[in-house]
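User: Hey, quick favor. My workstation is busy. Could you predict this chain's structure for me?
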Amino acid sequence: MKKNSIRTGICFALTAGCAATAMAQTGMDRTVLPIPEPKYPHSTVLDVRNAPLPPPRFEVKAPAGAPNVLIVLIDDFGFGQSSAFGGPVNMQTAERLANNGLKYNQFHTTALSSPSRAGLLTGRNHHTNNTGSIMETATAYPGNTGQRPESVAPLAMMLRYNGYTTAAFGKSHETAAWEASPSGPTDRWPTRSGFDKFYGFMGGETNQWAPAIYDGMVRVETPKEANYHFMTDMTNQAIRWMRSVKSLTPDRPFFIYFAPGATHAPHHVPKEWISRYKGKFDQGWDKLREQILARQIKLGVVPAGTILAPKPDAIKDWDKLTPDEKKLFARQMEVYAGFAEYTDTEIGRLVKAVEDTGQMDNTLIFYILGDNGASAEGSMSGLFNEMTYFNNVSETIEDVLKHYDELGGPNTYPHYAAGWAVAGDTPFSWTKQIASSYGGTRNGMVVHWPKGIKARNEIRSQWHHVIDIAPTILEAAGLPEPKIVNGVPQTPIEGTSMLYSFNDAKAKDRHLTQYFEIFGNRAIYNDGWFAGTVHKAPWEPKPRAALDKDTWELYDTRTDFSLANDLAKKNPEKLKEMQELFMKEAAKYNVLPIDDRGTERLVPEIAGRPDLMAGRTSLTVYEGMTGMSENVFINIKNRSHTITAEVDVPNGGAKGVILSQAGRFGGWSLYLKDGTPTYTYNFLGLERSTIAAANPVPAGKVAIRFEFAYDGGGLGKGGMGTLFVNGKQVARGRIERTQAMAFSGDEGADVGQDGETPVVETYGIQAPYKFTGSIVKVTVDVKEMGKADRADENKLRAETARKKAMSD
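Assistant: No problem, here it is.
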């Protein structure tokens, strides 16, 4: 009886403990993450039969009623492109969510992709994240190192530690370029940054028909589905994941970050979507700007009386173009518009799946229509293959017209002319990368949350910034801002919650001051006033002036929505005040020193950032090493080099790829075709040079060597290629032109296969063209360049950095 009474007492005590634990869910200290588990005394009872009941399981749950969260982020999309904001692109999902929610018409980004994403996912300014620019142009200075500090915990981590299940789909581009390899460190990969699930790509862009996909931190092959497209694939993955977690843990809220590579170049979309816009852009970009503004005013997303800000001088008037230019440019915009509508439709499938699972009422959706303004990196004429732009190879109107019917398909890697980017940013002047204009930073946003927003189809004009999303979500979920995460004191969140504006259209603005800076283009907003300077236009190779000689503009945004009336000369005192405020904010947030070296920052030794291949003249790789980006693979461009492969060929011969780099739009491959050693150099998809032996290699262990003797005397030159088998020369041939700066924005080097798109269209084996023998190892040796060529390469690599920054 005594023992039973003791155990009964313990049970009562444990029941009280369980109740206390339940109460602790609402009273626990969530400012320190992860929330520590309670400590229980160790048992001293030998036999479990005589022991008291075990302590209650410790589990952190999200606050009662915390909403699911879905962030949708479109890439390279202007304020005036979506039909929800008066644009020409039919986006029914955006419209439907807006009709049942809110449209924010004064929401801002940073003018560039990686910085906007860093701010979105942490609630801190991009320089606080060390993401002053894109990953590939990081430097050694604080604010620009490309490595998010431990003191800046991502939103996904905060939510996960507070009982959410989390996932990211699509584009990441938040990992330093030299960290995107199996060697890591992997601290800043998505699944080490708070996401339970990641399915997407790591770079700034990807081929939508043949993407470079990671599932978590594992590179996976592109699914072999007929008519495959990444937009549909990532949507399927997101729906599958969302249904699974809601099936298994229905009471646990989810956080989904859904970031398509769309509508970033390359503009890839099935033909039937392009055909929907046939003839709809024949009027040209000047007339389109007028039409968009009229619709914007009618919708109320732009105030009545707003005038068009002047377009940049470099953008030609449509009526002065040639018939061929008009024909090509109209087609480019048809492709882009089809791509955007297709993207919105796929997003609609995800939203419908949320609705079908009964989650819509308490799901907080942010549909952000652009991580910056529309992109002008397509230059003045647009491109058949964006990689020509990064290698300083010109494409004429006639060159691109040859691919007129193919644009948007898998045999192209296209972009539109810059005039469409300016039109897409209506009613403003500028485009992506211009942080000193709302054309680069003003993006439409739709917010939908039936349980939390009473209003329907209303406009909110409070001034907000991308760093305001994270604190809004925390407040909506009833979560405090964490002070310590993983033992590290946190940099305070720098954004301002938008929740106050959800149900109060007349609420006074709370985000009153915000700096902007990208590659020297810089601005400051303060309580309705906006001052900035265009230091360098996207298509200009050099800055317009030294940083201290820049010409600044001043606008009163309370009466000048489109920034059309420059008040700098009329109010120099206010301009000076704003310039001083910029310097104060710049010092506060690690913006200084300003680095406008977009033309040098791609070169690691100049930028001062780590380089995985620094000082290396030899790299040995092994079978199974695939997807090695140009930032982690040895550079064979503009120099003599040797590729030596040790392989084991079975009886009956072998075929397939031994080592390849990049693919259809530029790259090279060493392979066996029906047993015959072959090397092909693909120059930007424009011409291919093949050197092949006459006879197959013998069975057994074989050494296959390819030597390239570079001509020198400049960049992108040709040279002689020679093939050897077991030390004996078997073939020799000329390669007239090589790519000077880059092979691909997403495709890497592969051992034993050629993933994504093929360098060679006729390997004679099924994709991904895997080698049917065994590869012992492959060694790539490169020769040092001469001083003159090295200097020239650094200059051109620097210019490529500027262009890549525009294309992020």
